[in-house]
Amino acid sequence: MLQQVDVRNRTDGWWTLPIGIMCALIAIERCNARRLTICCGETPPKIARATVGKYANEAFPQWQMNNPKRTCPISLVELNDYMNNADGRDPWGTPYIMLCGATLPAGARGLAVLSFGPDRKYGTVDDIHSWE
After folding, report:
1. pTM
2. Which of 17, 29, 56, 73 is 20 to 30 A (C-alpha) from 3?
3. Three-state secondary structure readout of the chain
4. C-alpha atoms less than 13 angstroms from C-alpha of 86 in its C-beta half-sphere
């Protein structure tokens, strides 16, 4: 006599394979993220240069148009709405520094932003400035 097989038993867990594959791909992507950005030309110094430039030359002018009565934002957090950066930290984990108004360095206009660079110390040769 033939025995009937419950079809549900054969399909239980069919979805675990696609989820397992996705988890593996995410893990590989996270492990290779740093190597991929470096091989594609996005080194940490390039990222920092682009970010300080974007704060000073793109986000600040947009902020100024929305805040015509103010000279300077209170902090860079106010400019994050105009950036794709909600963190406010450079690639080495140090907060970007904003200089505006009386603290504006020579050669800078409006707003200046700097990163302390890989050594995370101010005033060294690896500092990255928006005004240079």
Report:
1. 0.67
2. 17
3. CCCCCCHHHHHCCCCHHHHHHHHHHHHHHHHHHHHHHHHCCCCHHHHHHHHHHHHHHHHHHHHHHHCCCCCCCCCHHHHHHHCCCCCCECCCCCECEEEEHHHCCCCCCCEEEEECCCCCCCCCCCCEECCC
4. 1
CA distance 124 to 116: 8
User: What is the chain's pLDDT, residue by residue, as a tens digit (132 residues)?
Assistant: 566 655 555 555 555 656 666 656 565 555 444 444 455 678 999 999 999 999 999 999 999 999 999 999 999 999 998 987 668 899 999 999 999 999 999 889 999 999 999 999 999 999 999 997
Residues 6+ apart with CB under 8 A from 51: 83, 85, 90, 96, 113, 115
Length of the chain: 132
- The three-point CA angle 127-97-64 to 5° equals 125
Report the 10 Å Cβ neighbour count for 111: 25
Quote the Cα angle for 99-104-106, to 5°. Answer: 135
